[in-house]
Amino acid sequence: MKKIFISAAGICFSASLMAGVYGDTADARHAWAVHDNNRPNPVKITANPGQAPSDAVILFDGSEATFEKNWCSAGKPSTNTWKFVDGTMMPVKGAGYLMTKQSFGDCQLHIEWAAPTEIVGYGQGRGNSGVFLMGNYEVQVLDSYETDPSKSPNPNPVCADGQASAVYAEIPPLVNACRAPGEWQTYDIVFHQPIWEGDKMIHPGSITVFHNGVLTQDHWEMEGLTTHRFRRPLKPHATRLPLKLQDHGNPVRFRNIWIREIPSRYADTVSGGPGTKEADVLALRQKLAAELFKKVDTNKCDYDMVQNIFEVVSYYKTPEYLEACKKIVSGYIANMEKWDDAMLDSQKGKIMALQRATVTLLRNKVFEKCALSEKIKEISKKKNWK
Ligand code: MG
Description:
CATH class of the largest domain: Mainly Beta
Largest sheet: 6 strands, antiparallel
Bound molecules: magnesium ion
Order of helices and strands: EEEHEEEEEEEEEEEEEEHHHHHH
Number of strands: 17
Radius of gyration: 29 Å
Distance between the termini: 32 Å
CATH architecture of the largest domain: Sandwich
């Protein structure tokens, strides 16, 4: 795989997984170095604005087929009393929750909804539905377009934490981005479920919501289950559960629903995040060092081999690796001592890249001292290299 690398000095390289040390090295909480070319690349997907990404699960695309395939009424095998109407799905009063047949955990969810065009009801009885993440955490759906009695002849002055885009009964939206009844609206939601170790909560999870493209919930850490009578506190549940849509007695329509499961922030145990486990970091560093060491040839003391062995010892040091490093570096220094001015000039870019690598290795205490660094300083001074 080709990568373009622009160094701190602005030098541009094109290489195939170029070995080398280009930023802070692995440490007790990071298996990967900064700009580590050994780090796996993200999975490539197709993403076009306004369309579901290629890795999304399409839960409802306006077809009756996706309505029947992906959804059922809570506790029943079919969609039962929810209806497919003109490319939308909507509850009939008394239908109960509609839920996905598939279960999900942490996710990115896109969903579109419209409150009834005809204004009927008041307060929580006007255009009420809800997006229940994992069936337990409600992002409210409500006609809260006009809440100010002084500005509307037909307001719906509901409590702030019960308006559209509220995490219901916990936190109001940051702003009221609600559109008028009958108009289609979007929610784009990023949801992380709470993390538990037995009955001990490690993290309460979070909900982020964009309502019609506007941030209305900014990484809100949940405090309870909407489905609890008294809301608080959080309680453990299964790690994958169906998404539910609420029937609150109002004919709210839904369309264009897709979901992407995303990894838990605790799933990555080697990258310095909240789930980091130092034993996992150490094990991966040892594995990476062992794999890279297979490519090391101590009889070949060129630029690439110096970078290779620098990578090895930056992941993990054994007496064998350090001995190989000493031999390769000594060989490279011996080569430099034989080079004439023209050869040194031709190698200036690589020599200075090695100097930056040694600075990083010394800074990160991979080495206490480095003969190569001293030698390059001597040459740079003599040649007035900057
Ligand atoms: Mg609701």
